[in-house]
Amino acid sequence: MPALRAEVSLAGPDAAPLGHARVRLLEAVGREGSISAAARAMGVTYKAAWDGVEAINNLVGRPVVEARTGGKRGGGARLTDDGIRLIEAFHRLEAELAASFTRLEAELLGTGISSASVMWGFFMRTSARNALRGQVAEVVDGAVNAEVTLAITDEIRLSAIITRDSLRELGLFPGRQATALIKAPFVILAPAGEALRTSMGNRLEGVITRVEPGAVNAEVSLEIAAGKTLVSIVTLRSVERLGLAPGVRACALIDASNIILAVN
Length: 264
Fold this sequence. Notes:
Helix content is 31%, strand content 34%. It is of the alpha+beta class. Among the domains are: 10-105, Winged helix-like DNA-binding domain superfamily/Winged helix DNA-binding domain (Arc Repressor Mutant, subunit A, Orthogonal Bundle), CATH 1.10.10.10; 182-260, CATH 2.40.50.100.
């Protein structure tokens, strides 16, 4: 039996319904910066894209896309705050529907239908020790990969390299909330004043708050901002050689390709 997938569709009086395809259109506008570019990315005509945006405006009752003038490309379009909130609310509804469907698993036993294969993505667990939530600040789309800059705080930025397919599948665009997942062994530590020039895309300074030694390695916690901590796994020999101890300022080096991005 083919896999099942629950989908959300929002409707209102005298307004066309809002479903997954039109949310993807809004995400494309946020990512591409114009309705025409979003239409090309979605493989639809400009008129179809514009009609879709108008239909969403009619359903919501307020503009979800606004014109943007000036700039290198002569203007375009951007999502309004209402547009961003609509996308995030839609995905939360999808997650809630998925959770409800999963709770019906017991009733589906013996019918030959299983929701487990459909719902695993919503409840995926990860072995990544670090999870930093932030807002997408910039997306630079390339021929194969894309560089996504995530604002963790006003001062802290993380750059991640992901495929263009992942960029579209996750629906990432400036203003969208996302979480950076980083495995502890991928966080390289160096004393703050001795971090050499490297090709690492991310350099985050902070203060070591904890060193938990093990048989061979140690778990080192680095506070990079209030309530924001990175955990690194380093050898005991490196802890001693680098003088890593609570209260010492250190720099975390993270390769952009070692960061996984996730959305709700």
